Recover the amino acids of this structure.
């Protein structure tokens, strides 16, 4: 499962979890009178604070789920091309004197094709 598919699944779960809140928001007039969003100062202070808290909880849940699934969003380790590795080994062998110049040139020509 790639990162995009996992994020879509988590966001769909969050959207489904929000459906009951959306339904209760459709209550008739007078429902919120004297309630948290009824216009009192604490409604304007605690409401956004609560939203930030739950947003942080949801982001933390997404991060934990992605780590649990092993999805980091980073590309795998960068490897040098195998031809470059072989050429480096060949250069080391030549530098150590294990092979002579003619053999080095012949094998380097083969590797660089």
């Amino acid at each position: 499962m790639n990162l995009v598919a996992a994020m879509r699944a988590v966001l769909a779960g969050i959207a489904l979890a929000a459906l009951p809140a959306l339904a209760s928001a459709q209550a008739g007039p007078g429902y919120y009178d004297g309630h948290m969003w009824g216009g009192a100062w604490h409604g304007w202070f605690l409401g956004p604070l609560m939203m930030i808290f739950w947003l942080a909880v949801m982001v933390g849940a997404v991060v934990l789920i992605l780590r649990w699934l092993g999805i980091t969003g980073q590309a795998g380790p960068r490897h040098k091309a195998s031809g470059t590795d072989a050429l480096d080994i060949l250069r080391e062998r030549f530098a150590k004197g294990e092979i002579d110049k003619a053999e080095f040139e012949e094998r380097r020509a083969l590797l660089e094709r």
